[in-house]
Amino acid sequence: MSYDVVIIGAGMSGLAAGIRLAYYEKKVCILEKHSRPGGMNSFYNLQGRQFDVGLHAITNYVKKGTKNTPLSKLLKQLKLKYEDFALCEQKSSLISFPDVSLCFTNNFQTFEQEISDKFPSQKDNFYDLCKHISQFNELNLNSTPVSAREVVSSFISDPLLVEMLFCPLSYYGSAKEDDMDFDQFVIMFKSIFMEGFARPETGVRQIINVLLKKYKACGGELRLKTGVKHINSRNGKVKSITLTNGNVLETKKILSSAGYVETMRLTGEKIQPDNDRIGKLSFVETIYVLDREPTELGIDKAIIFYNDSKKFLYRKPDNMVDLSSGVICCPNNFYFDNSLPEGMIRTTHIANFDLWDNPSSNDYRAQKIFWQKKSLKKICGVVPDFTSSMVFTDMFTPKTIKRFTGRLNGAVYGSPRKIKNGKTPVENLFICGTDQGFMGIIGAMLSGISMANLHAMN
Ligand SMILES: Cc1cc2nc3c(=O)[nH]c(=O)nc-3n(C[C@H](O)[C@H](O)[C@H](O)COP(=O)(O)OP(=O)(O)OC[C@H]3O[C@@H](n4cnc5c(N)ncnc54)[C@H](O)[C@@H]3O)c2cc1C
């Protein structure tokens, strides 16, 4: 079997790239080792309930008709209608630090007002930072990385405000410990503060179903439960792919969303485990199903980013989990037409992959229970105690992320060194998705689109 393009991975970037290529009549096949599409943002069923693997919120929300934004460009490129993703806006979110919190909504003026109320001395500095961000071209594929902490601190002189800005942006899109590249900071700042959060009422299934339907309608082929075992190259050029079932596919080009190091290892390149291209940041995520709406318990925010001291640490922790900061998401607190069937709270903390990967399987289960209890206690100090309303919980760890996505170290945001132009040392092998540099659901789709446009159209 021979293809124009084979795409490794049916996550958000792979599906979006596939639509572009199939629409322009390329013979394209997406290979996905799992039984379901969606990648890191897939879905599952447990005890009669439907869960999203990861979805807290879709970033980059803008109202219908807003032009020249990531969401509108993405819909145009994928020939989708605004209504297809059925996005419903958040109510409001919060950055909560000791003694000060900042509320934000999808109206940026709310955030500006909060900053001028809580940090009056920084009002003009924040205005100047926003002006710099608005004029910055974060999509330049040839930019040199610059420390976001250095740039932001050159505008904002109150270190607490700097930490408060970094907390949500790091949690939702930084592969770097304790800093970000400034272009990534700008992407995240615009997508979270200047644009905003939304969710489809039915969760990530809505997005995946729309992408799948479009891809198939354009004539694309998807093979699930089909892992890539080896990328066969000769003289720096891919010739074929060997699948885990032993079959061999020929292809002119490959777009891989499996991660840079993960992909290069498929070519046979030896990359040591301590290589600085391998990401270190992973997370534990706990889902609590409640017998009532979180608002009935006094929890009315869509997303809360908390930190329990004035300094925000975003790095691989020495313990299995770092409870000093976290994200608390309430999927119910979006403006849906109908209420969700049950109340739900999702929590995220930074976690240490190596420590989760080590314990024996019994110990692993005991550690999950231990850390879930500790996390619950901590979270119930940030929001009103919801323990007596819990009817079901599920938790996953860095080990689960590695098992289901193949990401080394369970590193959700992949490598700290991004490959903006998608090129690899192999002439016709390209990277898209997380390790190309655009992250999150919207970012990954845009990455798939731009890498398909740049490398695989002719
Ligand atoms: C817990 C969690 C919560 C998140 N929450 C949000 C959120 O609320 N909002 C948001 O915008 N983003 C969120 N994200 C991030 C978002 O999910 C990712 O940035 C995005 O989905 C990445 O898409 P991708 O296509 O780059 O990679 P992936 O989703 O990792 O897709 C890569 C695919 O390649 C497949 N693959 C790998 N190796 C092979 C192989 N050898 N052969 C065949 N297939 C292979 C994998 O199985 C996978 O399906 C979250 C992520 C996690 C883990």
Main beta sheet: strand number and arrangement?
7 strands, mixed
End-to-end Cα distance, whole Å, is 20 Å
What is the radius of gyration? Answer: 21 Å
The overall number of domains is: 3
Task: Tell me what the structure shows.
- The chain has 13 helices and 18 strands.
- The longest helix is centred in the C-terminal third of the chain and has 22 residues.
- Strands 1, 2, 9, 10, 11, 12 and 18 form a seven-stranded mixed beta sheet that branches. A seven-stranded mixed beta sheet has the order 7-6-14-15-16-13-17.
- The model has no long low-confidence stretch (mean pLDDT 96).
- A hairpin with a 2-residue loop joins strand 10 and strand 11.
- The chain has three domains: 200 residues, FAD/NAD(P)-binding domain (3-Layer(bba) Sandwich), CATH 3.50.50.60; 105 residues, no CATH class; 126 residues.
- By secondary structure, it is α/β, with parallel strands linked by helices.
- It binds flavin-adenine dinucleotide (FAD).
- Flavin-adenine dinucleotide binds next to helix 1, helix 12 and helix 13.
Search tags:
FAD/NAD(P)-binding domain; 458 residues; binds flavin-adenine dinucleotide; alpha/beta; 7-stranded mixed beta sheet
List the helices and strands and how they pair.
Blueprint: E1 2-8, H1 12-23, E2 28-31, E3 43-46, E4 49-52, H2 70-77, E5 87-89, E6 93-97, E7 100-104, H3 108-118, H4 123-135, H5 148-155, H6 159-171, H7 182-195, E8 198-200, H8 204-217, E9 221-223, E10 228-234, E11 237-243, E12 248-256, H9 260-266, E13 282-290, E14 303-307, E15 321-329, E16 343-351, H10 353-357, H11 361-382, E17 390-396, H12 398-405, E18 429-431, H13 440-455
Parallel strand pairs: 1-2, 1-12, 2-9, 6-14, 12-18
Antiparallel strand pairs: 3-4, 5-8, 6-7, 10-11, 11-12, 13-16, 13-17, 14-15, 15-16
Helix pairs in contact: 1-8, 1-13, 2-13, 6-7
The structure holds flavin-adenine dinucleotide (FAD).
